[in-house]
Amino acid sequence: MRRVTPTALNGATSGRRRRRLQKLVFSPNRLSAASWRKGYSWKQKLKMSNPVKKARQGEKLPLKSRGIQSKTSYDLRRLQSLLIKANPRQEVAALSQSKARSRSQGLHPLLLRKTPADRGARATSAVKHPSWKNSASRTETKDVSAATHCTRCSHILTSLVKNRLCSEWIDHAPPESVLRVLICLRLLIRDPHHQKLLHQLQGISLLARYMESVTAMYISCDEQAFAAQKLVTMTYMFQKLSVVENQRVWVIESGAHRTLVKLLSTTDSSVLLGALLALTTLAESPECKEEISELPIVENLLVILQEYDLLSKRMSAELLRLLSPVWQVREQVRELEGLPVLLSLLYGQHLKLLWSVAWILVQLCEDADTRTEIRSWGGVQQLLRLLSSDRQYVSDRSSIDALSSANAAGRIQREHIREELSPQEEVDNTVALQSACCTVLTELSLDDTSAHHIVQENGVCIIAKLILPQNSGPKVTSLQCYAFRTLRFLFSVERNRHLFKRLFPTDLFELFIDVGHYVRDLAAYEGLQTKVSFYTEEELDSLRESIEAVDQNRPPLKVINGYSILDHLGTGAFGSVFKVRKQSGQNLLALKEVNLHNPVFGKDKKSRDSNVEKIISELTIIKEQMTHPNVVKYYKTFLEGDKLYIVMELIEGVPLAEHFNSLKEKQQQFTEDRIWNIFHSGNKPQSFEKLMS
Question: Which residues bind ATP per the record (predicted)?
């Protein structure tokens, strides 16, 4: 072929030479344009013939599919006939051979999934057939085949129950054969129709009875072939049956819940998780949780919460949350000293675990003694820390059904259930946890001492920050209502009310008061949330400044002889009392400031000095000799300028008159034991008059 250069092409001057060059360039192998076009059309014709060829080949596919479908039907019939045989050894061997043949062809005779015939039908459906009648015929055949397939599976389920579960076969068959039967049942009851059929055949009771016998041997011997796998399979089946609400009574009537509770003492993580998932699904019904609560379940749950892996802890906490509304469960938690265990979990990082623990505490707060115990164990500080800290949390999206399926299939991830959540999911989970913490603090506020303790721990400032508008969303809006409710409960304690006068602007404070004392209904606080949501940026800045003003961690007002003045507690006849903290320590103390220019100490300097020496001497004697739990401790006395300062123990609590007002608002009364516990030398006669009236 002659080589043509750009120079030659550009330099062509005559039309004849230019046409000749074009012919050489655009006609490969010196073919004429007509010949080249002829070859191109021939190739196109060749390409266009391929779909027809493929379509003709595709017409042969249904024949192969029908053959595979016939093989599947044959396997089902074969399996059904094997299950009717009386000799256990023959049928087990035959069953194994049948399964082996099925697996060699990529089939499982019991799986209710689409067969290769279905996949072949889908592949050929993309090709247009000359007649719609063939397509309709295939669809009708497919529907009939599916119905036949389902009917045979129902027959297989019936045979499994009648000829396996309720016969002597299950007691004498090899463990691996029994496990195969249980796996077949597990696969079959994924169909809701088969779950009802299992109940009609009394299969649930038979299954519960067999699980009880396996559990007894498993717990006593701790070594039995395939026992753990069988228990995992059976716990999955009971969890699956419990998903439908009206089927949970079937499980309770079978007594399976008693065996599931026994399995909580096992050390096998898969068996334990299977039992937890089944019980958690079961406990979602009020009637079922009552039945479960009558069993000794709390002790096992507390052990799991202390010693087991994160996933087991999470599911145990969720199960305990569902059961905690029952008073027997709350009583068991108190008797078994479970409160410290629950509070220790608040140091964790998993959002769903923390959320479950918080709602358990809400239920436990119904008892006044438990509220006191939560405060004494440092629960208030931990809850406020969850509201204010920037802790890095972890979480997951795993549902109970997904975990149950993964556990039964042996695909559970044991290390940690941590997933990368989207920013919105992380916000929603965090807001849900904060709402739960606010609810616990709300219930704790019913106790006046606990309410005052929340205020002392800077709770007003921490909770008030949650009422500020944040990211939009229903959960964030709900959190604002939760925060307003907690603040309103704290305001109901008379001693705390001075803080709120500085916290809210006048219009918001009026709405805040109008809600009333101790109103639990969140709808009552929606007006407050709406009011704040319509604030301008300037109004929000003013509210933020007010919140910062009640922050008890702000710099001290002043420092006196190494003591930081944090708050003014009150003023009496001889001076004022402040809440202070020593600069080199963390303990809160009371500092009494006495003005020596008071006429009581003398009219001249000499008499004042003499009286001050007597006071200091008397305080020294009290400090050295008066040591009693009910007597306020004196730590130090010093003079600064013309004032006498006395450092004393800070007694947290509220005045007796405020106790009376609080009880009146709650429509409660003093008990006799409580009356005897509040007598001390500092009570005024007016207090006793109110007490005895």
Answer: 592
- 646: closest CA among 588, 542, 576? 576
How do residues 58-95 score in pLDDT, each as one tens digit? 444 444 445 545 555 555 565 555 555 444 444 444 44
Among 490, 474, 484, 469, CA closest to 539? 469
φ, ψ at 591 (rounded to 5°): -120, 115
CB-based contact 24:83 (threshold 8 Å): no
CA geometry: angle 122, 125, 131, nearest 5 deg: 150
Over the stretch 2-51, which tens digit does the pLDDT of each residue have? 444 444 444 444 455 445 434 433 444 444 444 444 444 444 444 444 44
Query: How far is it, in rounded angstroms, from Cα 43 to Cα 54?
Result: 17
Give yes or no for residue 97 having a pLDDT over 90.
Answer: no
Assess whether pLDDT exceeds 70 at residue 285. Answer: yes
Q: In 10 A of CB 6, how many CB atoms?
A: 7
Question: What is the predicted pLDDT for the residue at 37?
Answer: 44
How many angstroms separate the CA atoms of 21 and 9, rounded? 7
DSSP state of 165: I
Q: Is residue 95 part of a domain?
A: no
The string of DSSP codes covering 459-523 is HHHHHHGGGS--S-SHHHHHHHHHHHHHHHHHHTSGGGHHHHHHHS-HHHHHHHHHT-TT---GG
Structure tokens at 14: 């005559």
Confidence of residue 596 (pLDDT cuts 50, 70, 90): confident
What pLDDT score does 215 carry?
A: 93
Average pLDDT over residues 157-183: 88
Indicate which CATH number applies to the domain containing 640.
Answer: 3.30.200.20
Write the Ramachandran bin of 410: left for phi over 0, alpha for psi from -120 to 50, otherwise beta: left
What is the C-alpha separation between 434 and 463, in angstroms, rounded? 10
Whether residue 301 sits in one domain with residue 391:
yes
CA angle 250–256–258, rounded 5-degree value: 130
The pLDDT of residue 33 = 41
Q: If you write DSSP's letter for every residue of 58-93 in order, what string do you get?
A: HTTHHHHHHHHHHHHHHHHHHHHHHHH-S-HHHHHH
Residues in the chain, total = 693
Q: Which amino acid is at 453?
A: H
> In this structure, are residues 436 and 358 in contact, taking their beta carbons and an 8 Å threshold?
yes
- Considering the domain architecture, whether residues 530 and 491 belong to the same structural domain is answered as yes
Q: What is the pLDDT of residue 666?
A: 63
CA–CA distance, 224 with 178 (Å, rounded to integer) = 13
81 found inside a domain: no
pTM of the model: 0.70
Residue 24 placed within a domain: yes
Alpha carbons 168 and 408: distance in angstroms, whole number: 26
Residue 529 vs residue 634, higher pLDDT: 529
531 in a known ligand binding site: no
